[in-house]
Amino acid sequence: FVLYLVYRKGRDGRRCYLVDYECHKPSDDRKLDTGYCGDIVARNKNLGLQECRFLLRAIVKSGIGEESYAPRSIMEGRENCHRLDDGIAEMDEFFGDTLAELFRKTAVAPEEIDLLVVNVSLLSGVPSLTSRIINRYKMREDIKSFNLSGMGCSASLISIDLVNNFFKTHRNKLAIVVTSESIAPNWYSGTDKSMILTNCLFRSGGCSMLLTNRPSFRRRAKLRLKWLVRTHLGSSDEAYTCCMQREDADGNPGFFLGKNLPKTASRAFAKNVAAIATKALPWSVLIRYDHRRYALTRELNLKEGIDHFCVHPGGTAVIEEIRKGLRLTDEDVEPSRMTLHRFGNTSASALWYVLGYMEAKGRLGKGDKVWMISFGSGFKCNSCVWEVANEGVKDANVWEDCGAAGRVEGVNPFMDRFGGVYLEED
After folding, report:
1. What is the CATH number of the domain that holds 45?
2. What keywords tag this UniProt record (predicted)?
């Protein structure tokens, strides 16, 4: 029995548990409703008639409602004269909200944290954002810190992978992952259609989470990490250049989305799903399929090993393509559609709003498998499988007053205001 306890303790000491997480809900004065979206388009003097029509059509088709959030600089009409301070202030508001609540809920003090990982792709200040948090919460001098930038929408799973690897060689540790994106200094004011689209989809948000490999936290944890697979197609020039930060012909900085992005995403998705399926599906299911990976991807049914799907809410087209590709139901992707509608695409933190929706609706039962998948520039596709560790995983979090019990199919507040433009013939 003693030997069993030693074995169990050693095994738990190498595991990665998600104790809790806290998503950010900005204040109501930062809500981007239909009227204000129209005002932002109208005050951009660089846009001609065709660009305005393209932008308004994209907004109508985006799947986003009128309660998502924008940075204060944009709400104040300063999107063409943003400053570094605007990005820092956006992050400070997010840090202060989520970290304070996370420490309160988990009863863990900042000085107990052994590892801090921050991922914000488009903001890299000096001192780093990790140093800013360490200074604010007076964390220990021997804390290990990592500041990740340029990783795109899949950065939170890269951060989880970093923590998981740290846990394999360091026992009884506590880690904080902070994931967000800086929208304020990266608003695009030019006329390139391949760069305008980011303004339609990306919104303010973020998430902080506490992870551990301490066996004493096992009965308090919400989730346990089972598998994580990372796919990177960066060796291909086509994949590397399909989405990137750059300047347009007039020198306006922004984020470029190439026409070959869907093709690249499909390639990365197929490779990643084939790899995660060999881990997540039971052997009784796998032996029925051809083990050549592409054949496996076309034939597999992930629902035979996965109970819930956290699909990155990068846009209605992204969600729909994954739904079709994996033969999921509307109920399976409802959390992603609801997240896109309510909060927009909050980049690397978006997956955690999707998870929060599932938790708010009481869908997570002990032993359930939750699959997360996200895409990022480079080009990357990362996914992981969590197992619900305990009963009673239900917290309304940011969905408490957002009507989480409802659906959003057929609800498009932008159609009433801009539908005429959307339906016009070119």
Report:
1. 3.40.47.10
2. Acyltransferase, Transferase
Residue with tokens 């997360």: 372
- Name the pTM for this structure: 0.90
Task: Spell out the per-residue pLDDT of the chain, length 426, in tens.
Answer: 877 666 665 565 579 999 999 999 999 999 988 777 777 777 877 777 777 777 777 777 778 888 899 999 888 888 877 788 889 999 999 999 999 999 999 999 999 999 999 999 998 889 999 999 999 999 999 999 999 999 989 999 999 999 999 999 999 999 999 999 998 888 888 888 888 888 888 999 999 999 999 999 999 999 999 999 999 999 999 999 998 888 988 888 888 888 888 889 989 998 999 888 888 888 777 766 655 444 444 566 788 889 999 999 988 888 998 898 888 999 999 999 999 999 999 999 999 999 999 999 999 999 999 999 999 998 999 999 999 998 877 888 899 876 544 455 545 665 555 555 544 544
Domains contained in the chain, number:
2
Q: CA angle, corner 164, sides to 391 and 301, nearest 5?
A: 65
Does some domain include residue 418?
no
State how far the Cα of 180 lies from the Cα of 204, in Å rounded to an integer. Answer: 8
Residue 22 lies in a domain: yes
- Identify whether 3 is part of a domain: no
Identify whether residues 100 and 121 lie together within a single domain: yes
CB 314 within 8 A of CB 201: yes
Tell me: do 27 and 75 sit in the same domain: yes
Tell me: do 48 and 90 sit in the same domain. Answer: yes
Residue that terminates a domain, selected from 201, 217, 233: 217
